UniProtKB/TrEMBL annotation:
Lineage of source species: Bacteria, Pseudomonadati, Pseudomonadota, Gammaproteobacteria, Chromatiales
Domain of life: Bacteria
UniProt keyword list: Cytoplasm, Transferase
Source organism (scientific name): Thioalkalivibrio nitratireducens (strain DSM 14787 / UNIQEM 213 / ALEN2)
Primary location class: cytoplasm
Presence of the UniProt keyword Cytoplasm in the record: yes
Subcellular locations according to the entry: Cytoplasm
Function: Part of a sulfur-relay system.
Protein's UniProt name: Sulfurtransferase
Length: 113
C-alpha cells in the first residue's frame, strides 16, 4: 500500500503504517489523519510530538495509553485529562492510531492500558 503526499509516493504496510520512519513529515501526518477522518488540532499535535519524541529519543519507546494520559496531564497542566480525553483525539487507540499518524512502526503491544 502507499500514500500520495505532494506528488510523492510514501510506502505503507497493509495497516497504514509507514515503511520508513524517515518518510514522515507533518504533511504526511495530515494526509494519514485525513484518511482516517481526523482533523488535527493543537492537542493532536502535542500527542503526536510526544509519541515521536519517545520513539526517536527514548530507545524506540512506544508508550501505552496510561503513560500517554500521564504525559498529557503534565504537558497540558490539566489533571482532568483521562483516557476518554485521549481517545476523543484518536478513537481507534491513542497509542496505535496516534502512532500511525506520528509515522511510528506498528506496535505489537496488545492493549491500551
Amino acid at each position: 500500500m502507499s500514500l500520495e503526499v505532494d506528488g510523492n509516493t510514501i510506502a505503507t504496510n497493509a495497516n497504514g503504517y509507514l515503511e520508513e520512519l524517515s518518510d514522515w513529515s507533518e504533511k504526511v501526518a495530515e494526509a494519514i489523519a485525513a484518511k482516517e477522518g481526523i482533523t488535527l488540532t493543537q492537542r493532536h499535535w502535542d500527542l503526536i510530538r510526544y509519541l515521536r519524541d519517545e520513539y526517536v529519543n527514548n530507545g524506540e519507546n512506544q508508550p501505552n495509553t496510561r503513560t500517554i494520559v500521564k504525559a498529557m496531564q503534565q504537558l497540558w497542566s490539566d489533571k482532568s485529562v483521562d483516557a476518554k480525553t485521549v481517545y476523543d483525539l484518536f478513537p481507534l487507540d491513542p497509542s496505535k492510531q496516534g502512532g500511525r499518524i506520528a509515522g511510528l512502526p506498528e506496535s505489537r503491544r496488545k492493549g491500551g492500558y
